[in-house]
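I am still getting used to backbone structure tokens and would like to learn alongside you. To get us started, please write out a protein record for me. Start from the sequence, derive the backbone structure tokens from it, and show both lines together. Once you have written the record down, we can walk along the chain together:
***
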Amino acid sequence: MKKVITTVILVALILASFTTILSASRVKADLSEARILSYSWYIAPSTTVLAQNPGDLVVVGEVQNVGSNIIGSVIITGFAYNSSGTALDSTSFQAFGTDLLPGQISPFYLDFLPVLDVAQDTMTNSYTASVTNVTVQVVVVSDTNVTQYSGLATESVTSYLDNTGTFTVSGNVQNNGTKTVGNVWVLATFYNSSGTVVGLNETAYLDPSGSLAPGDSVAFIATPADSPAELSNGEVNITSYSLLIQSSPLVGSPSPTPSTSATSSPPPTSPTASSTKSPAPVSSGLIYEVAVVAIVVVVAVLAAMLLLRKRHKNAQFEPPPPPPPP
């Protein structure tokens, strides 16, 4: 019995340790720490890169860390309504930027997936023709003690219209720090003349080697993931943009120091060059959380098996009950 109790206490301590590690990395925070700044919506074109299906309702916007803590992740929920105020669909997704310092801003992209048409027994996004209003709200904010590497900066950044009339931003990400960092990518947010978000893009991992050493640089090109010209018959007019550098730590290296790498830009200049687009990379913080949860589950399963084995062993060698009186 003492061994069983000891085993239970040991398992409890192990689980508590892993829970502490996990909560230190991602801690649920007050929703007031994140605020939606602006957003707009449109129907995903046939050339969409980020939406799962052409014809999906898409919302693009940006959220800011208005608190005093580092925000590990923000989840946004959107609701689509018709003219009668009836909710037609909803969706949720995590903002692209992670480990946001106080004041930092991240773009977000909401893809409203097809819904079930009961009469036809099929999934459809045809309801989007009836959408007259879309609202968005912050539903989950997680604080963290993880910080982005501070040695990265954009250089030689320029904006122009390419030969198809698409607003394009290009430049380099330079490692001005003293450490080798892991994968690097750039979040680009595009605005119209009113300052409303009308497009965004997240470049792929920029360096094929998977790391960027001190003094090295890597080029990037960013255009809106969904072409504005196709979305609104050329009515969307991008006049400015902002950039946020994100990176993952080099495997085996300690956590980097805080980063404030974010830039904004002038209007477009001269046309030349082409654009590249790619889907969003998976958050390293999310991978970490999944790994920790998996370890906790494995430990719990092993502990349960050990307890069952001990109980079975004890039952097997316990003496039989005394015979009944004659």
User: Anything to note?
Assistant: The chain has three domains: 2-23+288-317, 28-145, 152-264. Residues 1-24, 255-261, 266-326 have pLDDT under 50 and may be disordered. Residues 2-23+288-317 form one domain.
